[in-house]
Design brief:
8-stranded parallel β-barrel, Glucose Oxidase, domain 1, binds magnesium ion, 5 domains, globular, alpha/beta, 26 helices, 8-stranded mixed beta sheet, binds phosphoenolpyruvate
Length: 753
């Protein structure tokens, strides 16, 4: 059976389009099960009918015409129960409906199984037989297995612009689901980008003229380096020095002697340049890939990406200049930072990548540039959508391919509202973040890798609430030295002084692994992360602490934040090292002061130890991204469980409220720096809890300021009390969005989450 299935899946995958795939399925399944009929019905979401899409055995004229509304017929009963229905004599069943045009009166035995993808019933696969008999257990499991294999292919076809129904010409459509990579609505033309040259396709060939091959390779390498330099230059004004460091890392990779020397060595051993490059790049990439870690495998992709660039120059001597339409939605299997950077910013309306997570670099770049993005859209039919119109809903992580008029209109309205709101919010930038009942709730910005430290983007923020120091570590190919770090931190501290800047000590591990410091673990989010690593490596931690203290000399706006604390001992040890570093620096005559120290509340254990932790530190910052992930046991990067991840879950709300109350008992300020602080609905509840400050991504600053200026703490408290009585996040979100609507922050918020 396995061999049959494998053959069937291969045939289906090779099919030209869905109709052909369905025909293969009905033919093969009928043959394999020696049935008299095999048919596929698909659910048309627009009309809510199951439509006969392909059949081997029924009257061909019935295809596209026979439709069962939900609640009628055996086919839709399979959809309702989401289980196989196996009957020896279908006409006896009360839900049986006779359809004259199929010619099905002659069939008695009926077996129908649901085709389910991501929890949704997409259709029904049915086999029929003349005789009166029940299908055997192994036949049922065979059909179920075929249906489960079919589900992905159908989702692909639907997402690529719907399925044309043979009968009435209408089209089935369902949006493509992914992860919300960057907020906003983007409408435009899909431009599918793919790696410019395929290394895997390079054939083995002997070098006829070794010196000419070496020269060609050197030339291609130089051209690729020049191209990256040009890209970095073009983006100069949009990117901060931190961003440029990323391009610098690419240049370093291309400039590394080991890469160049290995290729030349292979050429000298007799290979032509292209294959020598292919083998060298693949060997480099494999080293990273075999480490089986999300971050490192992304680096392997970078290496391949760079290798392809060199190959392209080797092949043609010039880069193909893309012609980007005015509203380009960049689409690809795995969009890289360089692919995104290549599109002129003024033409970029959105981005959709089949792979990637919310915390991948390309999503971070999209957020920093304000480009609506959907990532992890694993059903993306990349090869079939170039040139189609797309709607990218970066709030919900949805993509509509060739949208219907009504979908397009709805999103155009949202985009317009968004523009109006942005214009209205712009006016708030210089207004204070004060509630109508006079409570000041300072609003800070989260920064790190990208251009978000530029003052224009963080206008309206009263400082930096979270500077993720791991980002400068992630885009280099070695640990940054003390002086290098000092300069980076100094720049951030200086650009905001005298406003406060919260520098968080290195938080690597989990999904943030350094290419030069590999960590291979089965459960990285429960493993060696954040302060656990830095305490185990005082030589890294002490250098960072020294760089931070020295960077702050004379500025007095530094706050230090410790990530991933789960035990009080970790705080004690970190404070001991901090005091030691401070003592050593002052002994040397450096004018450094001890900054206020806080901890991230992001591991559930800290929620219950507020009384033990509070006397040790000066402030708390709630990291709701990790707190939600750990409380709900939902990997924050896993698209399969993304629908379960919500900071408005009552358990998360109760935990956050408990932390705020705990900190207040000890008179210690507590803020929120996770994404929850940037969600207008959640922000109301945080106001009600009495948080001292909020820190959000630059893109959310204005919206959250609007919330602060429109909801009194008294009203927020009342809404919080009501929300805490509700038992699931959906109800809570609906309740809050209705309030936001009434207050005037309408459509945008409805589109959110
Ligand atoms: C958090 O966990 O909420 C947080 C702010 O930290 P990070 O997203 O960097 O893990
Ligand atoms: Mg965290």
């Amino acid at each position: 059976m396995l061999a049959t299935l494998r053959r069937l899946v291969n045939e289906v995958n090779a099919a030209r389009d869905l109709n052909q795939a369905l025909e293969i399925i009905v033919r093969r399944v009928k043959q394999e099960m020696t049935a008299d009929v095999c048919s596929v019905y698909l659910l048309d979401p627009a009309s809510d009918h199951y439509v006969l899409m392909a059949s081997d055995g029924l009257n061909p004229a019935a295809v596209g015409r026979v439709r069962f509304p939900r609640g009628e017929g055996l086919v839709s009963l399979v959809g309702e129960t989401e289980e196989p229905i196996n009957l020896d004599n279908a006409p006896d069943h009360p839900r049986y409906r006779y359809i004259a045009e199929t010619g099905e009166a002659r069939y008695h035995a009926f077996l129908g199984v649901p085709i389910i993808h991501h929890r949704q019933v997409m259709g029904i696969l049915v086999v029929r037989q003349h005789s009166q008999r029940l299908f055997a257990e192994d036949e049922v499991s065979f059909l179920l297995t075929v249906a489960s294999q079919l589900a992905g292919a159908i989702a692909h076809a639907e997402a690529s612009g719907g399925i044309q129904l043979p009968g009435d010409g209408s089209i089935m459509r369902r949006p493509l689901e992914g992860l919300p990579g960057a907020p906003g609505v983007g409408i435009g033309t899909a431009v599918v980008v793919y790696p410019p040259a395929t290394l895997e396709a390079v054939p083995d060939r002997h070098a006829t003229d070794v010196e000419a091959e070496v020269a060609a390779f050197e030339q291609a390498l130089a051209a690729a380096r020049g191209e990256i330099e040009e890209l970095a230059r073009r983006l100069d004004s949009a990117l901060s020095p931190e961003d440029r460091a990323l391009f610098h890392a690419y240049q370093l990779m291309l400039g590394s002697r080991s890469l160049r020397d290995k290729v030349v060595e292979r050429i000298r051993a007799g290979s032509w340049a292209a294959a020598a490059l292919r083998d060298t790049i693949q060997a480099h990439a494999r080293v990273f890939e075999e480490m089986d870690d999300a971050y490192l495998s992304e680096r392997a992709d970078d290496i391949r990406d760079l290798g392809r660039r060199v190959l392209m120059h080797l092949q043609s001597g010039a880069v193909r200049k893309m012609d980007y339409p005015r509203h380009t939605v960049l689409v690809g299997e795995a969009i890289s930072v360089t692919m995104l950077s290549e599109v002129p910013l003024e033409r970029l309306a959105g981005m959709v990548s089949a792979t990637g997570s919310i915390s991948s670099h390309v999503a971070i770049l999209a957020r920093a540039l304000g480009i609506p993005a959907v990532v992890g859209a694993d059903d993306l039919p990349v090869s079939r959508i170039d040139g189609r119109e797309l709607v990218v809903d970066g709030y919900q992580g949805r993509v509509y391919v060739s949208p219907t008029e009504s979908v397009r209109k709805e999103y155009q309205r949202l985009a317009r509202e968004e523009q109006e709101l942005a214009a209205g919010l712009e006016a708030l930038r210089d207004e204070p973040a004060v509630t109508p009942d006079g409570i000041r709730v300072p609003l800070y910005a989260n920064t790190g890798l990208l251009s978000d430290i530029t003052p224009s983007l963080t206008r309206g923020a009263e400082g930096v609430g979270l500077y993720r120091t791991e980002f400068p570590f992630m885009i280099r190919n070695r640990f940054p030295g003390e002086e290098e770090q000092r300069r980076i931190y100094r720049q951030v501290l200086e650009s905001f002084a005298p406003a406060p800047v919260v520098l968080r000590t290195l938080d690597i591990g989990g999904d943030k692994v350094l290419p030069y410091f590999p960590i291979d673990e089965d459960n990285p989010f429960l493993g060696w992360r954040g302060i656990r690593i830095t305490l185990d490596h005082p030589e890294i931690f002490v250098v960072q602490l020294r760089a931070i203290l020295r960077a702050s000399a004379g500025l007095d706006n530094l706050r230090l934040l410790l990530p991933m604390v789960s035990h009080v001992g970790e705080v004690d040890e970190a404070l001991r090292l901090l005091r030691r570093v401070h003592g050593e620096l002052t002994d040397k005559g450096e004018a450094v002061t001890l900054p206020p120290v806080g901890i991230m509340v992001e591991v559930p254990s800290t929620v219950y130890q507020m009384d033990d932790l509070a006397p040790r530190v000066d402030f708390f910052s709630i990291g709701t991204n990790d707190l939600t992930q750990y409380l709900l046991a939902v990997d924050r990067n896993n698209p399969r469980v993304a629908s379960l991840y919500d900071a408005l879950h009552p358990a998360v709300l109760r935990a956050v409220a408990q932390v705020v109350a705990g900190a207040q008992r000890h008179g210690k300020p507590v803020g929120v720096c996770g994404e929850m602080a940037g969600d207008p609905a959640a922000a109301i509840l945080l106001l009600g809890m009495g948080v001292a400050s909020l820190s959000t991504a630059a893109a959310s600053l204005a919206r959250i300021k609007w919330v602060i200026r429109n909801f009194s703490v008294a009203e927020a408290r009342d809404l919080l009390d009501q929300a805490l009585l509700m038992e699931d996040s959906r109800t809570i979100r609906r309740f809050l969005e209705e309030r936001l609507d009434r207050a005037g922050l309408g459509g945008l918020v409805r589109a959110g989450k």
